[in-house]
Amino acid sequence: MGLPADEVRARLEAMAAHDVPTHGGRTLAYVYDSGLAEVDVLARDALAAYASSNGLDPTAFPSLLAMEQDLVRFAGRLLDAPEGFVGTATSGGTESILLAVQAARDARPDIERPRMVLPTTAHAAFHKAAHYFGVEPVLVDVDPVSFRADPAAMAAAIDDRTVLVVASAPSYAHGVVDDVTPIAAAAATAGVRCHVDACIGGWVLPYLRSAGADVPRWTFAVEGVTSISVDLHKYAYTPKGISLLLHRDADLRRPQFFASAQWPGYTMLNSTTQSTKSGGPLAAAWAVVTHLGDDGYAALAATVAAGVRDLIEGVAAIPQLSVAGEPDSALVALRADATLDLFTLADELLARGWYAQPQLSFRDQPPTLHLSLSAATAPLVPDFLAALRESVEVAVEDGPVEVPPELVAAVASIDPETLDDAAFEGLLHVAGLAGADGALALPERMAPVNALLDVAPPRLREALLVAFLDRLTRP
Questions:
Q1: What is the distance between the alpha carbons of residues 120 and 228, in angstroms, rounded to a whole number?
Q2: Of 269, 288, 307, which residue is a domain's last?
Q3: Does residue 470 or residue 336 have the better pLDDT?
Q4: Predicted local distance difference test score (pLDDT) of residue 93
Q5: pTM: predicted TM-score of the whole model, two decimal places
Q6: Please, which of 9, 72, 213, 230 could form a disulfide with 87 given CB 3.0 to 4.6 Å?
Q7: Does the residue 11 lie in any domain?
């Protein structure tokens, strides 16, 4: 026998008690909260109403097609799309990016070993696309002060195997918008597509610019930009599971589609990597966007911008901290001086009810602490700054987490390709992610784990975390 509905609801509530909060503005990554309770209710109603609908066949569910077209038109206006532009709703930013890379690859069947040119700050989803689709990533270092892509170096990296050039608006790690105009011009001169990843900024940057913010140009108004990804489940404040991929024209999008009649069932026809997909997230997004409209989003963007200004001003008064780069949107990255351990700082903030995301060092870039502000966070910035000051004091007093030099040397010498399952068990134990019996054991404080991961080469980090995830998801 199954459980009574009330008991199921009680269990759901009990399990959620250990999650970071999705509302209230105190989770500074992963979730985006408008702070508008009526918007959340409207979104949940639409999500539930369309949860059983299927976006696989737009002729069977014409309401989903109509909502998708409305959202694409709204986004096209925000992103200065020209006449004849097209767009597709996807499950999230990663899928939008995957499709942009796949379409660029498939548009050039004459290139046997395709490449794409990425600034090192491009989202990791491009590396996932490279892995899935066999497109070699060519990484170009960014400016070490501004953290923006270097247009000259990007242009120099384009060759006769390049199928795609990428820029960010903004980059996730530092919240800065790349100088898209010269990057897109170089791509156009070479006859190469240029994709702008605006997944996290595409729904807030246009409103900030309209309000007078000095944001570099990055939309379809820039000649040479061929596609843009923008998520609605970020700063459009809709429930999770909805992004848009826009192309300048239909010819550019056509390689994105997949069709197969090579079996006796229905002819498979997809515009995305998914076939069956719930219409719930699309309906919820349509409801929220239709309800808020331009005036609502302009007000939310102004609230976020004020919060970012207050945060930056407050951080400037803390000697141990500074802002990495000059953020253009709602994302802020903090870096620390030698007296402050950022990983300990993250633990202290969490103990005070604030979730901030540690970002490990990469090449010559030091570790940072990522903060995504939402409209719900902005009014709480004074509270966050108070918690931040307290956390800094404690972290400085505790001192940095020290990884023993012999362990640093050992980690640096490990080739993850040569490790077997037993060796990974040992490494997980050393990293503090498993107990003496080999069972996973997440520590209450993650600073020692993050400190060890920070000194590990990227490939070993990846292997360790894959081994952790493998064990975490075993029943």
A1: 19
A2: 288
A3: 336
A4: 98
A5: 0.95
A6: 72
A7: no
